[in-house]
């Protein structure tokens, strides 16, 4: 009988820590799941589409205590780290030097891009979206475009290697260039701006001429922002 009691006590001493660990693990997982849910709500409330969110993963660490990693569709290999805002429940603080494009102030950004293009004489500037996001590498297509169309002459393209280039597309018009190029009203003009870091480093214009009768494909021509024709 005494032996049976000892066995029960020994079993209890084993089970209690196991149960405590299981309960603490469950509570931690529920907490992490809550952070992931709140992070998703935080993003969607700020205009980020569900399709742009690839993954949200909250973890337990020493510093910060509960980092939340988010991957976006434009760059799924990069995880942006956030932490819960201790002063504002269900809000988060970005622990990165660069803001994800999805969380950038779109109105302020559009105003910046419009001003940049208007300085070259473009009118009716309308943003159509992001067309490309890639890391700038030596001899890469993006690098060649920057070298050919960079807007800031003192830029050293080599100093930008390893940084991510975001290319944005705009519907534009330019009455003077339209006349200079002999375009018709139905011919379309689209501008592309290439942003590296916090600055627009280059840009170019593509003209799509209206398809003529019997023509198999529309004719495309590429120009610099100043109107010089270049090879496509």
Automatic annotation (TrEMBL):
This protein's name: Uncharacterized protein
């Amino acid at each position: 009988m005494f032996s049976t009691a000892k066995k029960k006590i020994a079993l209890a001493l084993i089970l209690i820590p196991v149960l405590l660990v299981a309960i603490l693990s469950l509570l931690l997982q529920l907490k992490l799941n809550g952070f992931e849910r709140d992070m998703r709500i935080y993003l969607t409330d700020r205009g980020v589409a569900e399709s742009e969110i690839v993954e949200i993963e909250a973890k337990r660490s020493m510093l910060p205590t509960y980092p939340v990693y988010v991957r976006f569709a434009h760059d799924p290999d990069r995880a942006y780290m956030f932490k819960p805002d201790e002063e504002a429940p269900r809000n988060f603080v970005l622990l990165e030097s660069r803001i994800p494009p999805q969380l950038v102030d779109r109105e302020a950004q559009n105003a910046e891009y419009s001003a940049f293009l208007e300085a070259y004489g473009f009118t009716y500037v309308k943003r159509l979206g992001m067309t490309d996001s890639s890391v700038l590498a030596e001899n890469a297509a993006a690098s060649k475009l920057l070298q050919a169309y960079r807007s800031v002459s003192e830029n050293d393209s080599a100093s930008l290697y390893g940084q991510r280039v975001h290319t944005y597309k705009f519907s534009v018009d330019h009455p003077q260039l339209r006349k200079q190029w002999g375009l018709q009203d139905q011919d379309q003009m689209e501008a592309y701006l290439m942003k590296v870091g916090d600055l627009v480093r280059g840009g170019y214009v593509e003209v799509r001429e209206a398809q003529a009768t019997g023509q198999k494909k529309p004719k495309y021509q590429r120009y610099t922002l100043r109107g010089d024709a270049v090879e496509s």
